[in-house]
Design goal:
By secondary structure, the chain is mostly beta strands. About 10% of the residues lie in helices and about 45% in strands. The strands form six sheets. It has a five-stranded mixed beta sheet with strand order 1-22-21-20-19. A four-stranded antiparallel beta sheet has the order 2-25-24-23, with no helix packed on it.
Length: about 300
């Protein structure tokens, strides 16, 4: 890992310079214009990826080196964390921590940091950060359950905690300090992605099973709402933001069919895997490459990568 890590650092640093120049105000402008009806269909080429022998594959995130994190499904077992790098899938179970309980991996950072969430033997959820052979369990003090949903190259974490009431609350961790946050008037607030500038996206609702709304949180803590025009009763989920302020997520139409979107410069573009019944975009990297999952007509879940067509 050390040689890979050293090769990553110059690129990661250069990407962050681009992020500072391009994202200052870009994503917030997107959020402010998120009720625009200016929409188009995105032009991408698609690649399906399936974990060998799995009954289902979900890709939750990808970095700028094409490394992926996610989960695979086996009949009779909970989902299990996996990564994809150098053209190969690998099951993820550091020091036997996950076992056969639920686990899922998120977006790998560009300096080799892996994140995951897992259930312990009592069913409580914990986050995990893995870097250079070290494994750190992440919990938020005073709360029963924790998830780590995103991490940037500076170690900034977007996470969520919940207690016996099952209500989700957002939290951002910077330099070891936790800052809880909730969208005003929200029942649940669930952050899902963070970029290197500290911008966060996620979803919120006003009651359990109520319509979901996407949100954008600026580095200084300002929150704004994101909704796909003409989304159905399910609403909108924003799940990933890259360093130039491009946001991806998904929504359900009035027939309860799920579609994905890219939001950039206040403009929505829609994304569906050809032939898919449902499409979920879960991550976008700094080159505009998107990863996620989709369901085919038989109901099987597959991972996918979508690359912008030239």
């Amino acid at each position: 890992m050390s040689s890979q890590r050293n090769a990553r650092l110059p690129l990661a640093a250069s990407l962050f310079v681009v992020a500072l120049a391009a994202s200052a105000g870009t994503a917030l402008a997107d959020s402010d214009a998120a009720t625009s009806t200016d929409t188009t269909t995105a032009n991408y080429t698609f690649q399906t990826l399936d974990y060998p022998g799995a009954s289902g594959t979900v890709i939750w995130g990808l970095n700028d080196f094409g490394e992926l994190g996610g989960e695979y499904h086996r009949p009779g077992f909970p989902p299990h964390a996996m990564i994809y790098r150098n053209g190969n899938f690998e099951s993820l179970d550091p020091n036997g921590l996950f076992g056969d309980r639920f686990s899922a991996a998120g977006t790998p950072s560009d300096i080799g940091t892996l994140i995951a969430d897992y259930a312990d033997t009592s069913g409580r959820m914990h986050g995990v950060v893995m870097q250079w052979g070290q494994v750190e369990t992440v919990d938020f003090a005073g709360h029963l359950n924790a998830n780590v949903d995103g991490i940037n190259i500076f170690g900034g974490i977007a996470g969520v905690y919940w207690d016996a009431d099952g209500v989700y609350h957002g939290v951002v961790r910077n330099w070891g300090r936790d800052t809880p946050f909730d969208f005003a008037g929200a029942y649940d607030t669930y952050p899902l992605g963070i970029n290197n500038a500290g911008e966060i996206v996620g979803y919120w609702n006003t009651a359990r099973h109520a319509q979901w709304h996407g949100f954008y949180r600026s580095p200084d803590g300002q929150l704004s709402q994101i909704d796909v025009p003409n989304a159905g009763p399910f609403g909108t989920v924003t799940i990933s933001i890259n360093d130039v302020g491009q946001i991806v997520g998904y929504y359900a139409d009035n027939a309860n069919h799920y579609h994905s979107f890219i939001l950039r410069h206040g403009r929505f573009q829609f994304l569906d895997v050809p032939g898919a019944v449902q499409t979920f975009a879960n991550s976008i990297n700094n080159f505009g490459v998107i990863a996620g999952d989709y369901y085919d007509a038989s109901g099987k879940q597959h991972g996918f990568i979508a690359r912008p067509s030239r």
